[in-house]
Design a protein that fits this description.
Organism: Roseovarius faecimaris
Number of strands: 0
Shape: elongated
Radius of gyration: 30 Å
Keywords: TPR repeat
Strand content: under 5%
Distance between the termini: 128 Å
Number of helices: 14
Protein name: Tetratricopeptide repeat protein
Largest sheet: none
């Protein structure tokens, strides 16, 4: 009897040891799976932001082919295609994302962005109409403003631009877009104000500086405003102002501006030199 009890205890101990080993193995497996998920998530983030756009596209294409039901991988592919300037493919990829059962409102906004990049303005407008008005983000209103601009619905555009500016801590880009909208409508003073504010928010935004000169030139303001600029930028702005003067018929002023551009540029300024020579030849002829 004693032998039987000892044997049973021994068997019990062995069984318990086996259970503990099994439990430990399962815990290790789960831990490793969690680590793999974290590593994969980190890699996905790196591919979306830091990797070469073409490399990111290849990575997410392979990942989605292996796990086609994963919406995060589908999003990664769609975003990478936009980043790689492949809008037609991006539109198709975003369509799959918004059709997914786990799609969210942000996906519709990103899809609308891809449609605009692919020059499909009506589809983009229809997609944003599916987003409830309670979903308020900077990107949503920036796209709404762009679509209103394309439809020449100026009051709506101004309202959307104003809302977008209030929803971001970096408004320079949208202010520049808003200013260009004003410029296209012929509201040169309003455009000048917005471009100036854009530059105040981001002194490196050369597009806003050049647009500011266009707005001033349209008002026959032929002096450079006081804005931060490099020597090369200053020469380019003088050249833009000279072109504006030509458009206004002020050729004498334009010649002076082209000369200033040539003298200001730290290297040879071919475009300004050629424009100056063309004006001087017209005068001599």
């Amino acid at each position: 009897m004693r032998y039987i009890l000892l044997s049973m205890c021994a068997l019990g101990a062995m069984a318990l040891s086996g259970c503990e080993e099994k439990i430990n193995t399962e815990e290790v497996d789960r831990a490793l799976q969690d680590i793999n998920v974290v590593d994969e998530t980190n890699l996905n983030d790196v591919m979306l932001v830091a990797a070469d756009a073409g490399e990111a596209v290849n990575y997410f294409k392979k990942a989605t082919s292996q796990q086609p039901d994963r919406i995060d991988l589908q999003r990664g592919l769609a975003k990478s295609l936009v980043r790689a300037s492949r809008p037609t493919e991006a539109v198709a990829a975003w369509q799959k994302v918004v059709d997914h059962k786990d799609s969210v409102e942000e996906d519709k906004v990103d899809f609308a962005d891809a449609l605009i990049r692919n020059n499909e303005w009506d589809r983009a407008d229809a997609m944003l109409d599916q987003v409830p008005p309670t979903y308020e983000t900077f990107k949503r209103y920036r796209l709404e403003a762009m679509i209103a601009d394309s439809n020449k619905e100026w009051k709506k555009a101004d309202s959307f631009y104003e809302t977008a500016v209030g929803l971001t801590t970096r408004p320079a880009g949208v202010m520049n877009n808003w200013g260009y909208s004003k410029l296209s409508r012929g509201d040169f003073a309003g455009a000048e104000r917005l471009f100036t504010e854009a530059i105040q928010n981001d002194q490196s935004l050369f597009t806003a500086k050049n647009n500011l000169i266009l707005a001033r030139g349209a008002q026959k303001k032929y002096s450079l405003p006081v804005i931060p600029s490099t020597q090369t930028e200053r020469a380019q702005l003088l050249y833009t102002l000279g072109l504006s003067a030509v458009k206004q018929g002020d050729t004498t002023i334009a010649k002076g501006l082209f000369r200033d551009a040539v003298e200001t540029h730290p290297q040879h300024f071919e475009e300004a030199s050629r424009s100056l020579a063309a004006l001087e030849d017209n005068v001599s002829n």
